[in-house]
Every structure is written in C-alpha cells, then in structure tokens.
Amino acid sequence: LHAQHSQGLQSPCMDLCHVPATREKGWYLVLMAPNVKGPNYAWLDPSRLYCHPQGLQDCVADLLQPFQGDAIDMVAGIDAMGFILGAAAAAVLRKGFLAIRKAGHLCVQTLAQPYTDYSGREKVMEVRTDAISPGLRILLVDQWVETGGTMRAAIQLVEQLGGPPPPCPTGVAAICIEDSEGGRWIRERYKCAHCVPSGLQPRFDRHQ
User: Fold this and answer.
1) Which three-class secondary structure state does DSSP give residue 174?
2) CATH code reported for the domain at 29-205
3) Chain Cα centroid distance, residue 59
4) Each residue of 32-55: pLDDT tens digit?
5) Below-70 pLDDT ranges, the chain
C-alpha cells in the first residue's frame, strides 16, 4: 500500500475503470492528488477520489462501518467538500442530509459559530435552526480534519440545537483525522471513523 500510495500521488491522471483485485481499507487513497499550487492550498486534494465509482463507494462504506447498528437520524456535511461525502453517506443510510454552511449563504434563520480553519483564517459557520430538534442523532461528516477547528465548530452548532443528552452528534467521519491537538480532542470525545490505515497515519500527520 505504501508503494501504491506513492505511485498514485505522482501520477497526473487516473484510470476510472481499474479496481484492484484486493480492496483493503484505504486502497482508494492512491487516487488523491498532491498540492501543486503552493501553501495557500491544502496539502492533498481528495476530490480525484470521488471521480472513481468504486473508490467513492468503498470510501463511504469505510466511513459508515464503525456506525453499523448505531441510531442515526440525519447526516450533516460541512461546507463545502463535506457535502460530497455527507450526501453520499445519507443516501446509503436512507437518511436526510443537512448542510452546515459558511456564513452568508442561508436565507433562513440560522445559528452562527465563529472558528479558525486549518489555514489560520477566522471564519463563521451557520446552520438553519429548524432542522435539528433536541435528541436528534446526527452523524457529522467532513472531507478532512486537520487542526479540528472546523469540525469542532460544527459540533458546537449541533450540540447547541440538539443536545446532549442523548449523544449529539452520534459520531464524526472524515477521510483523515490528523493527530493534531484538535484531532485528538475530537477522537477523545466522539465516536470517529476515518479511512487511513494505521501504518500510513504518521505520514498523513506529517503531510507526506
């Protein structure tokens, strides 16, 4: 998997038809593309993964596997790339999908939460106030958890509107939850799912 990962990051294109004979957890990570535009961008771009039919299906299945048998009433995705995985997870679970948005995009009554994103920029996140009722069990989904600031803001919004108790959110899912201070804070308090094999986690934490 290490060799496949390195080879996949160096390749400028991908084969949407190729599926490996043995699909171990995280095999689809080789489809992701590295940052070629400099420090103002995230270090890795997972969007290429979403173009691969089997890769996307297996990624969503891995994110949902730890929550098999858990009560989930709704899936919430975080603006913007969390919308892709969150909506896909909601479709698999046959549940509704809630978009948690950056400020200024919702024309209804909202609850707002300021936060600092992975790049150190100050932002504000909003969620509509009529979608979450007390006790609703929500699975929070984002593409990536780097410093944890964005996910923590989403958690605060959901908990202000929906509890606890019971546990709300019921869990957190992302392709990668880095071993940062914020990532550890989330892992220690909430049930989490991610797609990175343990052997590769240190490399992802170092952005290699």
Assistant:
1) coil
2) 3.40.50.2020
3) 11
4) 999 999 988 899 999 999 999 999
5) 1-14, 164-167
